[in-house]
Design brief:
The complex is a heterodimer. Chain A is 48% helix and 11% strand. Chain A contains seven helices and four strands, in the order ααααβαβαβαβ. Chain A has a four-stranded mixed sheet. Chain A is globular, with a radius of gyration of 24 Å. Chain B folds into two domains: 31-156, TolB, N-terminal domain (Rossmann fold, 3-Layer(aba) Sandwich); 158-422, 6 Propeller (Neuraminidase), CATH 2.120.10. Chain B contains three helices and 29 strands. In chain B, the strands form seven sheets. Chain B has a five-stranded mixed sheet, with helices on one face. Chain B is globular. Chain B starts with a helix and ends with a strand. Classes of the chains: A alpha+beta, B mainly beta. At the A-B interface, helix 1, helix 6 and strand 3 of A face strand 8, strand 17 and strand 25 of B.
Chain lengths: 182, 423
């Protein structure tokens, strides 16, 4: 028993201290010495290359576009223990499909995240969340969104937007969210 | 006539006694009454003494093989006429223990079990545990040995490690190794979403878990002795290891490679996947049965979650449960299936989720819980004990059911919500 307890602690310490290997250390001094004068010069002007322009601004522009599109997308809500698209959610699906097919969005991938309320066993809820995401994907594809652009993930009950123990709160957690990816 | 009736009744009771689905309401034999005497050394502080006594007394109560007297008593370890008989308590047994803290951080325990009929020790043993915060396992070990000493059915399950995942906030969960009372807890995986831990072997030195911290959900295997972590497989959508074969070479996985949750057998030696279920709805929570040739699982193929069985390699599916309208989690051991069933017409009814036990060989159904949300049942190896998640009054707890004694206990988690469990 002592051994088992000891090994339990051993793994805890090892995992907490990091299971991944250390990053390989690079000898920067040696690399710098090998760079020729011409290479050094080229490196000095690399900031002027049009293909290598301030990448921070480019990323933030895409991120801004994605944030704007995600804000315009509508969350799809589901009934208790169900994964079919409710009639009152169809208009939102239509609007999302139109949004994702705009010129601005058509080059982006779409991640549909299925979520559940806190009722039930979590393994079933992960599968239920996935079915909700799948229902949304199928509807989007029917409306002309390319299936190749859509990926699914389920978070079961792990990603609530509301934590109160009320019907209104549980209603908000049974949902599919949209994330856009470059 | 009366004699015949009594004979039939006795025979029926005897036959039923072998069926765990039948509740044993009345026990004929009186349980041995036991008191505890703390004879610890002076370097053991008072609050530690109280905690240790509480766990030890709790263990013997949960065993259901003793009538436990809760009074906290102190004595000398050698004992005297008064201490060795304790007539005022009318007990049958005295469990006397002496704890001492050592220089190296270990705890030593000297333990004796005294029969109050003659004041003599029938059992005496010394124990050591190397780190102080592991003292719950010291108490559990003593309880297991004392229980064996009186010839009661084994409670060795108390020494098992429980592994569980707990949600700490949105998309954040940690994996923790604990004892069954949650008195000992050690977080072994943290950072991001880490769910569905599952022991890989009986020795409990390897476990699997799913990480949601990569591009796709990824199943890892962690070696407890070395801390080595290996990637086993990743999959789109969802990934859960719900069971491990007896020889440890095959896993039952719930995966959705085509956006559809189905159960697969993953062969760790050949690294191949075999799809078992084919239904286009939800199939989850696979458990090996019948020598790992068959599985029981949860499916919504009738329009609601229920428990089914299927031979591996066959498409023929058998409905196992004909009760309830939402049976969303199950565990199987030999001929028994325990499952969680949602009750009431809506989620707002006074009843919520209860556990039920069925035998695959009889028509009996036994209700095991009556209040709260009782989820994720898991059998111990002894078939008499079930671990489960209990949620009540906004608190998450580990529950223990002792089937033969018809008793259940729960041990609340102070922070977080239990996501899944294994032991």
């Amino acid at each position: 028993m002592n051994k088992i307890a000891l090994t339990g602690l051993a793994v805890a310490m090892l995992i907490l201290s990091g299971c991944s290997q250390k990053n390989p250390e690079v000898d920067m001094q040696q690399q710098q010495q090998q760079v020729s004068t011409a290479d050094k010069k080229a490196a000095d002007i690399s900031g002027m290359d049009a293909n290598n322009m301030d990448s921070g601004d480019v990323q933030s522009a895409v991120a801004k576009k994605i944030a704007g599109l995600e804000e315009k997308s509508s969350v799809i809500y589901f009934d208790f223990d169900k994964y079919n698209i409710r009639p009152d959610m169809q208009a939102k699906i239509d609007a999302n499909a139109a949004l994702f097919n705009t010129t601005e969005a058509k080059d982006l991938s779409i991640k549909v995240e299925g979520n559940c309320d806190e009722w039930g066993t979590d393994e079933y809820n992960y599968a239920l969340g996935l079915k909700r995401a799948k229902s949304v994907k199928d509807s989007l594809v029917t409306l002309g969104v390319s299936a190749e652009r859509v990926m699914l993930v389920s978070y079961g009950e792990s990603n609530p937007v509301c934590s109160e123990k009320t019907k209104e709160c549980w209603d908000k957690n049974r949902r599919a969210d949209f994330k856009l990816l470059p | 006539m009366f004699k015949k009736l009594m004979t039939i009744l006795t025979l029926t009771c005897t036959l039923f006694a072998y069926d765990a689905t039948v509740e044993i309401v009345k026990k004929m034999d009186r349980l041995p009454r036991i008191i505890f005497q703390d004879a610890s050394m002076s370097n053991v502080e008072q609050n530690f003494r109280v905690k240790f006594h509480k766990i030890l007394a709790g263990d013997l109560r949960v065993s259901a093989h003793f009538e436990v007297v809760d009074d906290y008593l102190q004595s000398s370890y050698e004992g005297n006429l008064q201490e060795n008989f304790m007539n005022d308590f009318k007990s049958d047994l005295i469990l006397r223990y002496q704890l001492s803290f050592e220089y190296d951080g270990s705890i030593l325990a000297k333990v004796k079990l005294i029969n109050t009929k003659d004041g003599q020790a029938s059992f005496e043993k010394n124990y050591k545990i190397s780190v102080q915060n592991r003292y719950p396992f010291l108490a559990h070990k003593i309880a297991v040995d004392v229980n064996n000493e009186i010839g009661a059915p084994s409670i060795k399950w108390m020494e098992q490690f429980v592994i569980f995942s707990k949600y700490t906030s949105s998309k954040q969960s940690e994996i923790v190794i604990s004892d069954y009372t949650l008195s000992f807890q050690k977080t072994v995986v943290k950072g991001g979403l880490n769910v569905f831990p599952k022991w890989a072997n009986k020795e409990q030195n390897i476990f699997y878990y799913t990480s949601y911290n990569n591009a796709e959900p990824t199943l890892y295997r962690v070696h407890v002795n070395t801390g080595k972590r290996e990637k086993i497989i990743s999959a789109k959508g969802m990934l859960v290891c719900s069971d491990v074969s007896a020889d440890g070479t095959k896993l039952l996985l719930t995966m959705a490679p085509k956006d559809q949750a189905d159960i697969f057998v993953y062969n760790l030696q050949t690294k191949t996947l075999e799809k078992i279920t084919q239904y286009s709805g939800i199939d989850v929570n696979g458990n090996f049965i019948d020598g790992d040739k068959r599985i029981v699982f949860v499916s919504d193929r009738l329009g609601y979650p229920n428990i089914f069985a299927q031979n591996i390699g066959s498409s023929s599916v058998e409905q196992m449960v004909y009760h309830g309208r939402n049976n969303n989690s199950c565990s199987a051991l030999d001929n028994y299936i325990v499952y969680s069933s949602r009750e009431g017409d809506s989620e707002f009814g006074s009843k919520t989720f209860n556990l039920y036990l069925i035998s695959t060989q009889t028509d009996y159904i036994r209700q095991l819980t009556a209040t709260g949300k009782n989820l994720y049942p898991r059998f111990a190896n002894d078939k008499e004990t079930i671990l489960f998640i209990k949620e009540f009054e906004n608190q998450s707890a580990l529950g223990i059911i002792r089937l033969n004694a018809n008793k259940s206990y729960h041990f609340p988690l102070k922070v977080g919500k239990i996501q899944s469990i294994d032991w």
